[in-house]
Amino acid sequence: MNTDLMTTSLLSTRIAVVIPSYKVTRHIAEVISNIPIMVWRIYVIDDACPESSGKFVEENVVDDRVRVIYHEQNYGVGGAVMTGYQAAIADGAEIIVKVDGDGQMDPSLIPYFVEPILFGEADYTKGNRFYDLDEIRAMPSVRLFGNAVLSLMTKLSSGYWNLFDPTNGYTAIHADVAKHLPFVKISSRYFFETDMLFRLNMLRAVVVDVPMDAKYGEEVSNLKISNIVGEFLFKHIRNFLKRIFYNYYLRDISLASIELPFGLVMLVFGIMFGVYHWMESARVGLPTPAGTVMLAAMPMLMGLQLVLAFIGYDIASIPKRPCHRKRFIALSGRKGG
Q1: pLDDT score recorded for residue 150
Q2: What's the CA gap between 118 and 95, in Å, rounded?
């Protein structure tokens, strides 16, 4: 990649950083001070912070790029990010990066998140802490397992089978794509990052992972797994059903649109038919006839094959063409001319 072109592109692009701020006064000043000079504007969203982090920034941070926005009530990280997105879009930002204010996200990585968007390779980028196997050892085993489960659920509900680490909040998005997000519909709290992926799939946006190190500080998470398991499961199922309906029956109809319902019907029929006759055989004490076994096994196998064929089609249907205009083509053209 041409380094001069990259530098020119970064310096000529309006890059905004959004920092949701809630109980982060210990770290936010350092986070802001480490944000690269290439960033055009910084939005600190005081989400009704009990520590008055917005006022803390105004009184202790000297940086002309900083804009502080206050929420009168707490809307959660998603609500704060949506407020930041809307403010950045209104001011004319081209790429918007979201960084947490707790010091666990290295601001020096911002160019790596911006680069795929700037050069027309992605509409949205997100961090992935699972690229370096040595770094993964620093991650608590419970969190590692939980992230693997959440990643599988997110692949199903969002349709981005190529992504991992779905709860990673280090992200960047092109403003042309962000403009089309349904800001009021996106989950505002812990399901925010996952719901964003679902909404982006509805826009057919290209999303890519950016490798980053796992970093854990002294901050105590407010997330309690027992409180969100049911909510997450419900929302994943809801988003999965919506995505399937929108992509396979409302926008377009393909062979996969037929494979899924037929496969599910045959699979469920085979299982119910087999269980019923197995119970009947156990009740009367006679072996199940071979013909009956085949009548149960055949639809099960055919149904499973059709469902797997649908999943294969779904995996191959990951968005590959970015939605936003490829501004770097004009830059490279001017440089080459």
Answers
A1: 82
A2: 8
- Contacts of 288 by beta carbon, 8 Å cutoff, 6+ apart: 277, 278, 281
Residue type, 252: D
Q: At what angle do helices 3-11 and 327-336 cross, to 10 degrees?
A: 120
Strand-pair partners of 97? 17, 172
Give yes or no for a contact between 178 and 95, defined as CB atoms under 8 angstroms apart. no
Q: Encoding tokens for residue 20? A: 């949701």
What predicted TM-score, i.e. pTM, was given to this entire model? Answer: 0.86
Hey, what are 167's tokens? 């709860």
Q: Kindly give the interhelix angle for 192-202 and 76-91, rounded to the nearest 10 degrees.
A: 50
126 φ, ψ (degrees, to nearest 5): -145, 155
The pLDDT tens digits of the residues spanning 217-232 come to 555 555 555 556 677 8
Smallest CA-to-CA distance from 18 within 91, 75, 129, 101 is with 101
Express each pLDDT in 206-261 by its tens digit: 999 999 886 655 555 555 555 566 778 899 999 999 999 999 999 889 999 999 99
CA–CA distances in Å: residue 336 to residues 7, 115, 265, 331, 333: 15, 20, 58, 9, 5
| 50 vs 145, higher pLDDT | 50
**What is the largest distance, in Å, between two alpha-carbon atoms of the chain?**
87
> What are the φ and ψ backbone dihedral angles of 41, each rounded to 5 degrees?
-150, 150
Query: Closest Cα to residue 316, out of 250, 264, 270, 254?
Result: 254
**DSSP secondary structure letters along 268-294:** HHHHHHHHHHHHHHHHHT-PPPHHHHH
- Please count the CA atoms within 13 angstroms of the CA of 116 that sit on its side-chain side: 25
* Residue in this structure with the two tokens 């053209």, named with its chain if needed: 333
Rounded distance, CA 286 to CA 251, Å?
A: 51
Measured CA to CA, the distance from residue 120 to residue 131 in angstroms comes to: 23
Alpha-carbon torsion (32, 179, 121, 188), positive or negative: positive
Residue 260, helix vs strand vs coil: helix
DSSP letter for 247, please: I
